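Human: I would love a firmer grasp of how sequence relates to backbone shape in proteins. Could you go through the record with me and say what the backbone is doing? Here is the record:
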Amino acid sequence: MTLYISDRPALSVPALSITDYVLEHAAARGDKPALIEGPTGRVVTYAELDDRIRSLAGGLAARGVGPGTTWALLAPNVPEYVVAFHGLALAGAVTTTLNPTYGPEEIAFQLRDSGATCIVTVSAFLETARAARAHCDVNEIVVIDGEQETPFAALFGEPMTRQATVDLDDVVVLPYSSGTTGFPKGVMLTHRNLVANLEQFFGHSAYGDDEVIYAVLPFFHIYGMQILMNAMLRWGATVVTAPRFDLPQMLELTQSWRMTRLFLVPPIVLALAKHPIVDKYDTSSVRQIFSGAAPLGGDVAAAAAKRLGCTVAQGYGMTETSPVTHSIAPGEYRPGSVGTLVAGTEARLVDPETGQDAAPSERGEIWVRGPQIMKGYLNNPEATAHTIDADGWLHTGDVGVIDADGHTFIVDRLKELIKYKGFQVPPAELEALLLADPHISDAAVIGVPDDEAGEIPKAFVVRAPGADLDAAAVQAFVAARVASYKQVRLVEFVDAIPKSASGKILRRELADR
């Protein structure tokens, strides 16, 4: 076995719940801005954040919300998202985070699977939440910014001074991921998982006391949840939230709030590298761009770094790893590298054909092991066993190469998952949807390279006998039923879908076309 071990100092994980960890120094920071709502300029100080979280937790506990309870959070990046997430965690409950671009059917699936009994949302998403509620056992909707249903303000009560009794290996959050294949699955992440991974992330980082962070990457996604929300608030940074990405707004906020770090995904880094509007704004305060969620090309990174006069780094991980397993430490940047292993993490590169460890500098599937690895998939032991083997190795489905200095480069993907602008698009989900159209007799979906999005979903469609079907009709059928990032961008009609003797779609043949 060829074992790769992090060269960072030994990891010591504080014995704290995620909220105790994030809030440990909050009250002492007093009037320092913790959260700024970017579009409005509304400020929430650290002392106010600490008080609101504790008051919400107390109110929830008084309502009987605590261990054994799961609530869903359906909201954009606003300060109240942080309050809701940590209020629930402090009360001992579990939060499942919903993608606001999901349609009612997608939301209802997650609500049913997670066992959520309440949705916390905003007015803009209320009708979607109501439509989803009709298909599951949710008995209450809480509205952050309105009086409809149950107002968020009605939940607050006497502040909870201590974490509700939980085991640190209890699940605290259930984001959903498609893993290496298949339909979305609830990723069971514990208090210990989250705290350990934040400590691992900080061991690869160097931040000042004056950090101002741009937070547009959604808090429902593990990258936004852990790095932009939890890590930065633990550190004491000021987090400027934005509900959606808008390049001029990002540049305006960067200029007005003197942002020091931009945590982004490759398509936004590409915009910073190439869009002419960037030169109209003062971005001199930016020290670093950190890219994640999908591979960032070395040329794009270099162009963005030169234009903004800052460093560009990237990392690697999965929802199932809380998420960081690799990161670029200060002064260790290499073009195309996702960095080295974070503290307490081991890796192997395994030949997917032979099951043997790849030789040094040869490619292999990345396997990782460490305290940040999920507890498993909710209600799905089969998928858990497929992803995490008996020795605790998580099989990522990504193919990498590790150089002599321990830097990892992602070179391919075994898993079927399509990454559109950093979001997961499971082909199986789109294929099942396409086959529900009576005009389609067979279908397959693959990802094809795209400069802006990374990959876009392409559907290969076999028309049903006698069907009069064009590409626009196929795209419209899908668009009416899924989130925008899952929509089919290209359609090709074929006579048959290539399959193996066992009936598995031969995606490589489709890609080779």
Remarks:
- The CA atoms of residues 423 and 485 lie 7 Å apart.
- The mean pLDDT is 93.
- Residues 418-512 form a domain with the GMP Synthetase; Chain A, domain 3 fold (CATH 3.30.300.30).
- DSSP finds 15 helices and 28 strands in the chain.
